[in-house]
Amino acid sequence: MIAPYLLSRRAFVSLAGMGLVIVLGCSDESGLAKRYAVSGTVNYNGKPVEKGTITFTPNDPAGRTASGDISNGSYSLTTATPGDGALPGAYKVTVVAREMDTTKLQEVAKGGQHHHDADFAKAVKSAKVLVPAKYSLADTSGLTAEVKASSNSIPFDLKD
User: Fold this and answer.
1) Where in the chain are the domains?
2) CA nearest neighbour of 93 among 153, 49, 139, 50
3) Per-residue pLDDT at 112
4) Crossing angle for the helix pair 117-125 and 103-110, nearest 10 degrees?
């Protein structure tokens, strides 16, 4: 027969172990504070930006940058793990949207090379810019955002 105090000790150890598994299973290994979902739309002259990248750079130098791909005018941010959002705070925002002909780069990649400087530079130079270049720099974009400690939907309407 098991003594009552052993049963309660075993129950305590079991419950503590399950609690630890639950806590560890829910965290990521980034060591960052809680991030909050950030998504939204990016339009240029009233039309969705087809593809590009959006970056949130924190005003606080100790903060962490978050970024995401723009697809058909929509984005969601990642800081450390895919889709984890951003830390709360104030940000400067940039948008880079270009359409590149990557056929030559794909041919180079098939040959086993993943990066060929001359072909890459040529593709970038001939890329069609989908939004004005001013939006690609934090100092000239004029775009800002405040990420709150909740789910965030932040739209951007870019103009010439």
Assistant:
1) 38-158
2) 139
3) 59
4) 160
